[in-house]
Amino acid sequence: MRNFTEANLTAEVVARMGKDCDPRLREVMSSLIRHMHAFVRETRLTPEEWLKGIQFLTETGKWCDDKRQEFILLSDTMGVSMLVDAIANPTAGNTTESTVLGPFFRENPPIIKNGGDISPGIAGKRVDVDCRVLSEDGKPIEGAQIDCWQASPEGGYDSQIGDGEAHNLRGRLKSDASGRFWFETVLPACYPIPDDGPVGDVLRKMGRHPWRPGHLHFWVQAPGHRQVITHLFVRGDKYLDSDVVFGVKESLIRDFGDQDRGKLTYDFRLKKAA
Ligand SMILES: [Fe+2]
User: Is residue 188 scored above 90 in pLDDT?
Assistant: First the structure.
């Protein structure tokens, strides 16, 4: 077939996929091609705009390395990450709701014993975190693995402080026989997502701010249960209703304490594995 037109090109691109294409890949790619073409038709995209889009994606890739993930920022700020999460992890009963992973998770966090400090040497209001990991029916889960990471009271993650090499403001803990894990840290501040790259630029052009309300990240995993990737948000933060990545859920907003030394408690309830 030759002589492609606005009317017949989409069907031909979809039809080019071979017989041995994986069925799920065929489904995803067919839909992606149809939606991309529909977007171009709907907006009557000009060649200059198309090139600008290509340059934007090229630039986004160039900003990515082991400490900066500009594509996750793009997905998060366009609401795609939360949409994927909402489909994969629908709210169920009283189990802990999930939210975005975000771009600041790092492999090999420091191993922290219960009662330890995940933010040594970081100045700011100290907070005692005292949580439990429970099953859906409220039974304690022993030996759950909990990863926690956060921004400092200045609003920076470890990868943004100094040379970015120190692993701080994060740790990996294990729940005890009563499902409990506890540690000391500092109060996480609200922070702007890194906005000195192409994603920050497009946010400004769209008239959007880059801020996230203060939160602690948690990734809780236990055998026989579905893992949960989530945050606990600081109640009263001024960005709870305009989180740039759309990650806030009412059930995840918690008191961090009004006293000089804060206190955060929460029970993580995990769904049974399917
Ligand atoms: Fe975060």
Answer: yes
